[in-house]
Specification:
about 400 residues; Rossmann fold; Immunoglobulin-like; Type 1 dockerin domain; 3 domains; five-stranded parallel β-sheet
C-alpha cells in the first residue's frame, strides 16, 4: 500500500478471492480475505464470465477531485487495474453518486444490483456526516443496503469512508467520521463480512496525508489523483488478503469528547483485527499513556478491554491501546484513541471546542473568526476570549498561553 505499508512489502501470489469468514464457533484466526471471491469466482466461472464488483458509494467513488483528463475517474478503474495485474478476471463497475446520503443510496441500490453482480463494495456516509444525519440512521441504512445485496446473492465488502481535512466546516476533528468507522467495524464483525478500512490507513498510517493526497484549498473532503490511487491500493490489499494493518480500535465508552463523566466510570474499548487476528498477549489498555491491568473479553478477532480505576478519575483522561497482530512480521499499534472529561473538570480559556485540550483545532477555530467584529456574520463569542467585541491578537495571545495544556 503506497505510503502506508507497515509489515513490509511482502510478495503475494494471485489467490482466489472470497468475502466469507470462517465459522464463528470455534473462533479461529480469520481466513485471509484473499479467499475473497472464492464462491464468487466459482459462480462467475459457471456463467463463463469474470467476477463483477459493484463499487457503490458517493462522490469519492464517482471520482470527484480526480484528474479531469482521465476517461475513467475515481478508485474503481484503478482497483480493477490492480486486480487484473494479478491475473484476476475481475470487472469493477463504478456506481458513485455525488453528494448522496445513505438514505438516497438505500433507495438507489435495488436498481443497480444486477443479476451478474458478485460483490458489493459499499463505501458511503460522508454526506450523512456533512448533513448531520444521526449515526444510528446512517448505520441502519448501510446495514439495510448490505442485507438487500446479500438477499440478491451478492457478497458484501464494507468500507469505512476517508477522513476530512482539519479545516472542514463540519467534523474537522473527524469525531463523527471516526465513530462511523467504529460502528462499521462492529457491523462487519457481527455479520461475518469483510472490511476495508481506508479511514484508519489514511488518518493514522499515511504521512502528510492531507497535504499529499487531498485536493486541498477550499475543498476539504475529496482525494486528489494520488489519493484515489491510495484508496484503490487500500481496497486492493483487502481483496487479496495483504494483512498489513495492525489491530484497530472501535467503540470507546465513555466516548471521545464526553463531558461530566462520573469519577468512577468503567472504560470499555473494542479492538478488532480483520486479518490474521490479534496477538492476545500483546494487548494493553493505556490510560494517559501508561498501561493498566484491564479485563479482556472476546477472541482474537474482537476484544472488549475493560477497566475501572482503583482511585477516582479527575480532569481529562486519555485512553489508548497497544497491540500486535499475528501476521509475520507482526503489525503493531500504540496510540491514543480518545479522551473524556470527568465531572467537575474546569476548562482553560483557550479551549474553544471544550475538548479538554488547547490544540490545533482551537487555533483553527480562532483563525476562522480572526478579525471579525461583534454583529458580523463570522463573529463568534467563544473566540472573543477577552470579550472586547473583536477577535484579534489579544485573543490569540490568550490561546497561545494555554497552547498544549489540558484541563484539570
Amino acid at each position: 500500500m503506497a505510503g502506508a505499508r507497515r509489515g513490509g512489502d511482502r510478495p503475494l501470489a494471485a489467490p482466489p478471492l472470497s468475502l466469507r469468514r470462517p465459522p464463528r464457533l470455534p473462533r479461529l484466526p480469520r481466513l485471509p480475505v484473499a479467499v475473497l471471491l472464492a464462491g464468487s469466482l466459482v459462480a462467475a466461472a459457471a456463467r463463463g464470465a469474470g467476477t463483477v464488483i459493484l463499487a457503490f458509494g458517493d462522490e469519492t467513488t464517482s471520482g470527484v477531485g480526480d484528474d479531469p483528463q482521465r476517461p475513467e475517474r475515481g478508485y474503481p478503474p484503478r482497483l480493477e487495474a490492480l486486480l487484473r495485474a494479478r491475473n484476476l478476471d475481475v470487472e469493477v463497475r463504478s456506481l458513485g453518486a455525488d453528494d448522496e446520503t445513505t438514505a438516497e443510496g438505500l433507495s438507489r441500490l435495488p436498481r443497480v444490483v444486477t443479476a451478474d453482480a458478485d460483490v458489493l463494495l459499499l463505501m458511503e456516509g460522508t454526506a450523512d456526516v456533512t448533513t448531520r444525519v444521526s449515526l444510528e440512521t446512517t448505520v441502519f441504512n448501510l446495514e439495510e443496503m448490505a442485507r438487500l445485496a446479500e438477499a440478491a446473492g451478492v457478497e458484501v465488502l464494507h468500507s469505512t469512508v476517508i477522513p476530512r481535512l482539519p479545516t472542514a466546516n463540519v467534523d474537522g476533528g473527524n469525531t463523527a467520521t471516526g465513530r462511523l468507522a467504529a460502528e462499521l467495524r462492529e457491523v462487519a464483525w457481527a455479520q461475518d463480512r469483510a472490511l476495508a478500512d481506508p479511514f484508519e490507513v489514511f488518518l493514522y498510517y499515511t504521512p502528510e496525508v492531507f497535504a499529499r493526497y487531498y485536493v486541498g484549498g477550499n475543498d476539504r473532503l475529496h482525494p486528489n489523483p494520488a489519493g484515489h490511487q491510495l484508496l484503490a491500493e487500500v481496497l486492493f490489499d483487502t481483496l487479496v488478503g495483504a494483512d498489513d494493518l495492525p489491530p484497530v480500535p472501535g467503540r470507546l465508552l465513555p466516548p471521545d469528547g464526553a463531558h461530566d463523566v462520573p469519577a468512577d466510570a468503567e472504560v470499555s474499548l473494542l479492538v478488532y483485527d480483520f486479518g490474521d487476528g490479534i496477538n492476545l498477549g500483546s494487548v494493553r489498555l493505556l490510560v494517559d499513556g501508561a498501561p493498566v491491568e484491564s479485563t479482556l473479553r472476546g477472541d482474537n478477532s474482537r476484544l472488549d478491554l475493560r477497566y475501572r480505576p482503583a482511585t477516582q478519575w479527575h480532569g481529562q483522561v486519555t485512553i489508548g491501546v497497544r497491540a500486535q497482530d499475528l501476521a509475520v512480521p507482526p503489525n503493531a499499534v500504540e496510540r491514543a484513541v480518545g479522551a473524556f472529561l470527568v465531572a467537575g473538570a474546569t476548562f482553560l480559556r483557550g479551549d474553544l471546542d471544550r475538548d479538554g485540550r488547547v490544540d490545533g483545532h482551537d487555533l483553527v477555530a480562532l483563525a476562522l473568526r480572526f478579525g471579525a467584529r461583534r454583529n458580523e456574520s463570522r463573529y463568534r463569542a467563544f473566540a472573543d476570549l477577552d470579550e472586547s467585541g473583536v477577535v484579534d491578537g489579544a485573543d490569540l495571545a490568550i490561546l497561545a498561553a494555554d497552547f498544549g495544556k489540558t484541563s484539570r
